[in-house]
């Protein structure tokens, strides 16, 4: 699974915490950049995303992300790509996890409730994402902290001035 999929799983497993969908979508786009760069699908030229020589590993959403990279000069800035790609990305990852059988959607228990709940299915992929997060793996930990998710062992302190108190990409969005 990709870093973005693992981040989506971690966000869904944090049912006791409020995660802003816009912030999560932006962090998911950032995770895609990291995964695509690692696979050499993209590279960086200063602040611009440039096409690379690698190919995405058959992950539908990563392939989709790779296809959105501008392939001609002037290349797009990382910031512009993140904002463009990030639109509604959290919903796309939830849908993808549902297609993969990793989440179930259920209606609220009230008779007239239209509110849907999304629940993770116990699976090796979900356990691996949770273990990766609990281990403090730096990339996933930084992305999770950017949207206000921390391992329960790290909770209990004031966030002011910490990782979650910073703005994302200088746009004034607080996780």
Q: What sort of overall outline do the alpha carbons produce when their principal axes are compared? A: globular
Biggest β-sheet: count, sense, barrel? 2 strands, antiparallel
How many β-strand stretches? 4
**CATH superfamily, please?**
yeast vps74-n-term truncation variant domain like
Gyration radius from CA atoms, angstroms: 17 Å
So what's the oligomer here? single chain
Give start-end ranges of low-pLDDT stretches: 152-175
Number of helices: 7
Q: What structural class results from the helix and strand content? A: mainly alpha
State the CATH architecture. Answer: Orthogonal Bundle
Describe the structure.
With 175 residues, the protein is mainly alpha-helical. It has a single domain, classed as yeast vps74-n-term truncation variant domain like (yeast vps74-n-term truncation variant fold, Orthogonal Bundle), CATH 1.10.3630.10. Helix content is 43%, strand content 10%. The protein is built from seven helices and four strands, in the order H-H-E-E-H-H-H-E-E-H-H. It has helices spanning 3-13, 21-38, 60-67, 78-85, 89-99, 124-134, 138-146, and strands spanning 42-45, 48-51, 103-107, 116-120. The strands form two sheets. It has a two-stranded antiparallel sheet with strand order 1-2. Helix 1 packs across helix 5, helix 1 (3-13) crosses helix 7 and helix 2 packs across helix 4. It is globular. The relative contact order is 0.19. Residues 152-175 have low confidence and may be disordered.
């Amino acid at each position: 699974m990709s870093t973005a999929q693992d981040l989506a799983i971690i966000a869904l497993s944090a049912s006791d915490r409020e995660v802003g969908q816009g912030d999560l979508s932006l962090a998911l786009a950032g995770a895609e950049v990291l995964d695509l760069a690692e696979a050499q699908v993209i590279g960086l030229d200063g602040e611009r995303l440039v096409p690379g020589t690698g190919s995405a590993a058959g992950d539908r959403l990563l392939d989709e992300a790779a296809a959105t990279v501008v392939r001609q000069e002037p290349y797009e800035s990382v910031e512009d790509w993140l904002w463009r790609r990030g639109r509604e990305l959290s919903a796309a990852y939830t849908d993808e996890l549902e297609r993969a059988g990793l989440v179930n959607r259920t209606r609220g228990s009230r008779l007239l409730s239209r509110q849907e709940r999304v629940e993770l299915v116990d699976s090796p992929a979900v356990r691996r994402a949770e273990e990766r997060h609990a281990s403090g793996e730096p990339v996933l930990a930084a992305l999770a902290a950017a949207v206000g998710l921390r391992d329960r062992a790290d909770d209990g302190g004031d966030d002011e001035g910490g990782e979650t108190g910073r703005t994302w990409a200088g746009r004034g969005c607080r996780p």
